[in-house]
Amino acid sequence: MNNYTAVVEFVLQGFSGNRAFQACSLAFFSIFYVLAVIGNTLIFIAISLNPSLHTPMYFFLANLALLDIVCTSTVIPKLLEGLVGKSSHISYKGCLTQIFFLTWVLGAELLLLTAMAYDRYVAICRPLHYSMLMSRPVCVLLAGSVWAISAINSSLNTYLMARLHFCGPNQIRHFFCEIPAVLLLSCSPTTLNNIMTVIADVYFGVVNFLFTMVSYSFIIASILRIRSAEGKKRAFSTCSAHLVVVVLYYSTVIYTYVQPGSGPSLGNSKVAALVYTAVSPTLNPLIYSLRNKDVKAALRKMFPCVC
User: Fold this and answer.
1) Of 58, 67, 157, 196, which is least packed with CB atoms within 10 Å of its CB?
2) pLDDT on residue 14
């Protein structure tokens, strides 16, 4: 049973081998990575340095910016390395490390979006109790739970991946190491891994998505009861950006982890993965800052000559 040759590295197949396409992909991912890192860093610094932004909503937004930086930095640099022709190989330990951090931030972001939806629910539906229900200790507890629960889930899934044997093909049909794609290469039984993946997907994806939708159903019902048009507009403006991010993020993550990692769905899985590893981290600062007067004012204070 132990007569096998262990795989010590994997090959990330990435995208098309066409040079023109790779050149376009290199430019595309380079721009998105730079914008994602700079944009989220600016959001994080602006919120941290401005006392006027030390509120629950911006506290969660700062956590989201930090998660986006870690997410895109876990995947994109290795992809860029492969696109410039240096190496499309990734070591076994490097693959597990990428799986750990990516699973951690994906789970944390899904939980954080739920916490942000709850914050908006309390702010709009129970404004008189907002200071009590969303006090600083409560916000810290929610954020700490987000990071801790997702870290436990990531550690467990990475441990289960580390128990598997990889003794056959080492070609990962993806542009980064992700649990569904790597499981296809295992020559060990993956039943337990698949069960844990489904459980995590149901909890982090489906259950939290339902909680978020329930929160927004109450929010929308409360907004519709507002008599003034200006009040409705102000309430919708505080929630519409978050709702766009929720739909974009949840739909792509759930699709990736529910769909099989081979066959005709492979190309679609790559596109979905692009959304939550490159596109979403880049768009989040734009979605939250361009429509937010407080954030724009904080950025003007930081860069008066630019803004």
Assistant:
1) 196
2) 73
Helix (H) or strand (E) holding 48: helix 19-49
Domain at 9-302, CATH from 3.10.20.30, 1.20.1070.10, 2.30.300.10, 3.80.10.10: 1.20.1070.10
- How far is the CA of 271 from the CAs of 92, 96, 233, in angstroms? 25, 22, 34
Residue spans per domain, the chain: 9-302
Return d(Cα 205, Cα 151) in angstroms, integer: 16
Q: Is the pTM of this model over 0.70?
A: yes
Beta bridge partners of 89: 11
| Distance (Å, whole) CA 91 – CA 107 | 24
Taken in order 77, 81, 83, 89, the sign of the CA dihedral is: negative
Q: Which parts of the chain are beta strand (E)?
A: 9-12, 89-91, 171-172
Mean pLDDT by 10 residues, the chain (307 residues): 65 74 85 93 90 90 94 91 79 93 93 91 89 93 96 95 86 87 88 90 87 87 76 68 75 67 55 84 81 77 64
Q: How far apart are CA 166 and CA 170, in angstroms?
A: 8
For residue 119, give both structure tokens: 């914050």
